[in-house]
Fold these 2 entries.
Entry 1:
Amino acid sequence: MAFFLPFVLLNLAHHLLLLCPPALPRFSQPPSTRPTAAPTDRQPAPARPPAAPLPRASRRAARPAHVAQPRRRARRRRLIPGHDARDPPALQRHNADIAARSIGDSTRACGHCESSVLCLPPRRKWRALRRLGAADLFSPQRLAATRPLRQEAVAGLVRRVSDHAARGAPVDVGRAAHAAALGLLSRTMFSADLHPATASEMSDVVDEASVLAAGPNVSDFLPALAAADLQGVRRRMARLVRRMYAIIDEQIERRVHSRAAGEARRNDLLDVMLDKDLFTGGETTSHTIECARGELLQAPNTMRKLQDELKSVVGTKQQIDETDISKLPYLQAVVKETLRLHPPVPLPPYEAEATVEVQGYTIPKGTKVLINIWAINRCADAWIEPNKFMPERFLGSEVNFMGRDFQLIPFGAGRRICLGLPLAYRMVHLMLGSLLIRFRWTLPTEVEKNGVNMRERFGLALSLVVPLRAVPEEIH
């Protein structure tokens, strides 16, 4: 699952701070690595401006064909510029000019986008929310304080898998990781576990909202018809958002009443956000865990090599600790390679804040810009055998996914880099490492016969078309 699926929408006093990365499209077929521009297949070379002024009618004809011509009451066409991974992309060179986020009509349901750090343009309010998140939610001090909660979440995941191993039953890897991440969010935010039925409902709501938000919507292409909501997408999204708010508001009301009654502070994220009249959301790592397991099950030698490293470093411990991560270079390489092949946000949507020229193409202000991270991560100029799962490529390499190496930017770069990246980094290593040090994994007979289906489906967040199921065997 992608680092940014599923996210939790939390609302307090009509303020919402959403700390998800742009949570992702799902593909049945991978995006083309060829530079493209919608709606045409390929753009002609940029035209040179005329040497002398032209009559008005001639000026219109002389405009470069690759520039989408704006029309009244219609959005400018989306542009997907090509990219050479050896050359810093638009995210670096023109970071300030394309830092706005392109959002669909469905995300405007219930005013969600008006106070979300995901959707807001890079103005004063957005900067204030980013500073708040960096200082109070994902600072080194806050992450250190919540470290025991992450360890307990991983321990719960291991116990759940152990129960399946005792019965010889296959595990839905993505679903199990998802449940563990929801438990972490609940304990981190509320110092309590969600009721299983509530957690299941929240998971279903987020999954449905993810698919709904990323689906085709006529309102996104014909804004003049948006008010009519012809497909009912915004109405359905509003219902989902209201349900999510209701779940979260129940937790908030309980805490407000307990504080009013003089109960001691718990110093969790809910107390921090109540102090500031704001709240936060988060994203899970389940898609990344699922994809990593799928790739490893198809490369048993790689899995054995990783398990040998874990055994030599962690020893007899039942799960790894955050302090072990820096001592596990092969585990880090496996995570990097998984994120390279399965980026959480393969086509993050941006919007040009000003007219800018990128690789010879003029992008007018207001143009919707899609950065093809999927293609960048598989660029043959940057990677040997780019479509092959090969963690060894990162051993001895300083390349990482923190936004500085532009051939590997699964979480974006620049101003819009994922705010929750420090937390996601810890959780994916803890979960994956603990699942591999405690269990041997095999495929069910039918899956082994037909092969692992790694196709990903479209949505606001990525997920596998066919959920990965694997049989754990406890290592004694």
Entry 2:
Amino acid sequence: MTTLVDIAVRIFFQQAADLLFTYQAGSARTQMIRVVHMAE
């Protein structure tokens, strides 16, 4: 049986995982840009 708490926790972790993924993708992109600028 799924309670409201279970749903809330699941949504919270989903949001946290999305944020973490977005942050990692963003920092990876900034590192790539930095490397490109160094190469020029």
